[in-house]
Specification:
This protein has helices at residues 3-21, 24-36, 41-74. It is mainly alpha-helical and 78 residues long. It is elongated and about 50 Å long.
């Protein structure tokens, strides 16, 4: 499978996951993929927005309590 096929098949999922973890660089790369024709621009924007919406909830529900517990253990939390 060539890289073009991978980007056409999994590009929008990569945009969603990238937006949920990284952010701005993902939107830039999604724009490049849309310009080249691997993904649709409107779909890329929609997947990016969904990833951005998922980001704060993911951090609060998974990472937040673990990080707070680690800060308490080290004496860094109030």
């Amino acid at each position: 499978m060539e890289i073009e096929e991978v980007l056409k098949r999994w590009g929008l999922l990569a945009v969603f996951v990238g937006a949920a973890t990284e952010g701005e660089v993902t939107m830039l790369l999604a724009g490049v993929m849309a310009h080249v024709g691997f993904v649709d621009l409107v779909s890329a924007i929609g997947h990016y927005a969904a990833g951005e919406v998922a980001r704060p909830r993911r951090r609060k529900s998974f990472g937040g309590p673990l990080l707070y517990r680690e800060q308490l253990r080290r004496g860094l939390a109030e």
